[in-house]
Amino acid sequence: MLHSLATNLAEQSPDAIVESALREFEGPLTGYVAGLLGGDWDRARDVVQDTFLKLYQQDPGTVQDRLKSWLYTVARNRSIDIIRKDKPMTITSNEAFETLDDWRPDPSAEAEQKERHAEVLLLVDRLPENQREVIRLKFQSDLSYKEIADITELSVSNVGFLLHTGIKRLRAMMGVADQP
User: Is it the case that residue 112 has pLDDT exceeding 80?
Assistant: First the structure.
């Protein structure tokens, strides 16, 4: 859908662009921002609303090829502004990683999965801030290395290094041997 959305942006009105982007990105973007804002979902919704308002005001041609990374960059920058304005907050939230899923395993497997998920979230919270952020963008928001680099203003190789070292550190904390 992203490819077709990006392909047709130039042909759509600003209203249609915002409507299409809202359908596709509002949920994941709100979760990402809530994680940045320490689980403050009300503020996250405000930031996402501001982000889509900026998209509406933006010339569609300037974001056509990079709509997803543009949305995440604008939302991240606005979140950072809020964090700087307020007292320093931790950029962690277990709620930001929770997802709804129609498929449910048997109750014991589901309980084990929830326990493992909670353990991983606690361990992610112990990672350095830069590793936490790139891990969230990669696995929560399913962004590419390039999109993460654009959003965080890091190089693609730095993003790869942070992901690699963050995952390696998580495995060590969990007592799981590194996979070759």
Answer: no
- DSSP code, position 175: T
Angle at 57 between CA 55 and CA 60, to 5 degrees: 65
Q: Is the separation of the CB atoms in 35 and 136 below 8 Å?
A: yes
pLDDT tens figures, 71-96: 999 999 999 888 888 764 444 544 44
Q: How many CA atoms lie within 13 A of 82 on its CB side?
A: 22
Q: Rounded CA gap, 44 and 31, in Å?
A: 8
Nearest to 44 by CA among 68, 67, 92, 78: 78
What pTM value is reported for the model?
Answer: 0.58
Distances (CA, A) of 161 to 57, 85, 112, 125, 145: 36, 30, 30, 18, 10
Backbone conformation region of residue 39, classed left if phi is above 0, alpha if psi is from -120 to 50, else beta: left
φ/ψ (deg, to 5) at 40 = -85, 90
**Sequence spans of domains, the chain:** 2-174
- Helix/strand/coil (H/E/C) assignment for every residue in 61-112: HHHHHHHHHHHHHHHHHHHHHHHHHCCCCCCCCCHHHCCCCCCCCCHHHHHH
At 67 the pLDDT is 87
Question: 32-57 pLDDT, tens per residue?
Answer: 898 888 888 999 999 999 888 888 78
Sign of CA dihedral 135, 141, 144, 148: negative
